[in-house]
Amino acid sequence: MPGTVVVSVDAELCWGFHDQVTMPADRIAAPRASWRFLTALFEKYEIPATWAVVGHLCLDGCDGTHADHPCEGAWFSRDPGGVVTADSRWFAPRLVTNIRDSAVGHDIGLHAFSHVEFGAKTTTPAIADAELHHGVTAVGRLGITPASFVFPRNNVGHRSLLAARGFTCYRGPRPERWYDTSLVPGVETLAKGATYAVGSSPPIVSPAVDDTGLVNIPASLFLFSFGGLPQRVAERIGRDPIVRQVEAGLDDLRSQPAGVLHLWLHPNNITTRRDRRRMNAISALIAAYRDRFGITVATMADVAEQILDDTTDTTAVGDGRERGTRR
């Protein structure tokens, strides 16, 4: 039996950049349009995804200061406050409810409240817990109880707080490859370029319960890790290298029933027609492998639930209890 594809989406609008000196103009120019494009694409191909939403987006409005949040200094200085509008980049409850109400069956997770990096040295337990509290409260306004968590900028930290807040899983870092820790200058760049050129398979990961009781579902491939001029040159020679990598991963998945190919992106990565073509090609491939070869397409929450059920079943059998009993 083939394995499982998981697609996770870091849904941020402007919150992904508000702490940077310069916010990238191309990625904040039309983030709502990119979000809607991705929603429609997943509906077309019937692909359920995990949408990790920045909690602040679920608000109808705010004062722009958030005095009850322990972050200090200028953290909320770019937050304009006010109320939600049709083109707001800081509030987006309607975009979130459209995902919630989709017939595809998406999983709406949390990407913190205001995109604080949990693994940063300046992020205290109090700050991390406030991000979880305010985030869970904000999405709760829309009738959503999040089970999945994606760490802002993949900077993992304060995992035990997630478990205490009722989360069941998170997206862990991609498994290291040999070139990630190479001390030879330029080796990492050359190795990555070669990987894209030959369309080698991204890692097929094995989600597992960690020491906090959460299910770690590591990333396999960031879908916009290759672009710009190198992508245009590569496409003149053959197909988009990222699409080739996804296809190679899907081929590997056909013989790995316990494996997961975990693909991820931000809606704001989609800024050009080329980006849309990439996502359409990837979505079509996932649907084709599902329909032809029986590959499962699942959300992070789905995968975590299955693993936790299996773990409970195994424990129950080992303890002599009736199989399937959860304690």
Whole-number total of structural domains: 1
Summarize the main sheet: 6 strands, parallel
Counting DSSP E segments of at least 2 residues, the number of strands comes to: 12
**CATH fold node name:** TIM Barrel
Span of the ends, CA to CA: 30 Å
CATH class: Alpha Beta
The percent of residues in helical segments reads 25-40%
Tell me the series of helices and strands, N- to C-terminal. EHHEEEHEHEHEHEEEHHEHEH
Count up the helices.
10
Structural class: alpha/beta
Strand content: 5-15%
Roughly what is the average pLDDT, rounded to an integer? 88
State the CATH superfamily name.
Glycoside hydrolase/deacetylase
Low-confidence stretches: 186-194, 321-327
The geometry reads as globular
Could you walk me through the main structural features you see in this protein, from its secondary elements to its overall organization?
It is a single chain. The strands form 3 sheets. Strands 1, 2, 5, 10, 11 and 12 form a 6-stranded parallel sheet that branches. By secondary structure, the chain is of the alpha/beta class. It has 10 helices and 12 strands. Helix 2 runs parallel beside helix 9. The protein has a single domain, classed as Glycoside hydrolase/deacetylase (TIM Barrel).
